[in-house]
Design goal:
Layout (H helix, E strand, L loop, with lengths): L7 E4 L25 H10 L3 E7 L10 H17 L6 E5 L15 H10 L7 E4 L2 H9 L3 E5 L4 H7 L12 E3 L2 H12 L1
Parallel strand pairs: 1-2, 1-4, 2-3, 4-5, 5-6
Helix pairs in contact: 1-6
């Protein structure tokens, strides 16, 4: 990273920024922020960070909602962040199910590679925050700084990590929520 580039963070959406649902977030009304997440993004914005979101949205291929609904959900999220004084600089999503052979669905690193190209930088040491193993695996592929939050599916991910087949990638830091990640990052930035 050159001195002219702002630091970059990559966030998963469901379970990190907003409450997750096993039935998918299918409408703007179902998108509900996790307490403190919008303020955490605003604190990053005020500290000069760029914020990207990388999210699997297989509900599109499943026919649960279409691209226009996804855009409406993301508009609601961006407006909610803006109301708190923050900004999301890019949203990258995979519309495919796990059965589709694509390179964009996490744990594949395709979305992250798109972010790297769009922001014009390598992602090694870039913080990535997720609530699932696949978020962390995608980040580990590109040597990102890995953060697991206990919100969303985070506690299930931690419980599953006791099995070596689903262990967290080396170096993963575990915290309660996005706000705690931001606390750490801003402290390290000083």
């Amino acid at each position: 990273m050159t001195s002219t580039q702002s630091p970059l963070i990559i966030l998963d959406r469901d379970g990190v920024i907003n409450h997750d649902s096993d039935r998918y977030i299918k409408s703007p009304d179902e998108w509900l922020p996790i307490e403190g997440s919008l303020e955490a993004i605003a604190r990053l914005t005020h500290a000069g960070w760029s914020v990207a979101v990388a999210t699997n949205q297989s509900g599109i291929e499943r026919g649960l909602f279409d691209i226009n609904v996804l855009h409406a959900i993301h508009n609601k999220m961006m407006n909610a962040v803006a109301e708190k004084g923050g900004r999301i600089d890019g949203i990258f999503f995979c519309p495919h199910t796990a059965n589709t052979a694509c390179s964009c669905r996490k744990p594949s690193p395709g979305l992250l590679k798109d972010i790297s190209r769009r922001f014009g930088r390598p992602l090694n040491r870039t913080p990535i925050v997720g609530d699932s193993l696949r978020d962390l695996q995608a980040g580990a592929t590109l040597e990102c700084d890995l953060w697991l939050v206990k919100t969303g599916k985070g506690l299930k991910t931690m419980a599953a990590a006791k099995d070596p087949a689903t262990a967290l990638p080396a170096g993963t830091r575990v915290v309660d929520h996005l706000s705690a990640v931001v606390d750490h990052l801003l402290q390290e930035q000083q």
